[in-house]
Amino acid sequence: MTPKLVAGLEPPYYTAVFTSVRPDAPEGYAETSARMQELVREIPGLLGYESARTPGGIGITVGYFRDLEALDAWRLHAEHQAAKAHGRKHWYDSYSVHIGKVERSYGYERE
């Protein structure tokens, strides 16, 4: 199966870029990640997300949100906040978050 990228979004919209360093398979991470994927899909204004991880433990997830209200709804979601706190204590060696406003977007897909 070919991975699908988030494409065809009409700007402006917002991105949340989460980059992290963690061990490859910390206990409980996969279950929490799956739960976060379920929850974020329920946020009105979520346009999609993409994730990737290197074998060395560097990961990046980009979430696309229609507006800052949608992004804040995700940031302030109680289960998401609890997962972030648990991650800081148990999983992540480091992480960074970057929020941006997208004013231009384009892509390409081979037919």
Automatic annotation (TrEMBL):
InterPro entries in the cross-refs: ABM_dom, Dimeric_a/b-barrel, Jasmonate_Hydroxylase-like
Record keyword S-adenosyl-L-methionine present: no
Domain of life (superkingdom): Bacteria
PROSITE patterns (alphabetical): ABM
Class of this enzyme: oxidoreductase
Domain ABM: 13-99
Tagged with keyword Aminoacyl-tRNA synthetase: no
Keyword terms of this UniProt record: Monooxygenase, Oxidoreductase
Enzyme Commission number: 1.14.-.-
Single GO term (MF): monooxygenase activity
A Pfam short name: ABM
Record's protein name: Antibiotic biosynthesis monooxygenase family protein
Species in which this protein is naturally found: Streptomyces litmocidini
Lineage of the organism: Bacteria, Bacillati, Actinomycetota, Actinomycetes, Kitasatosporales
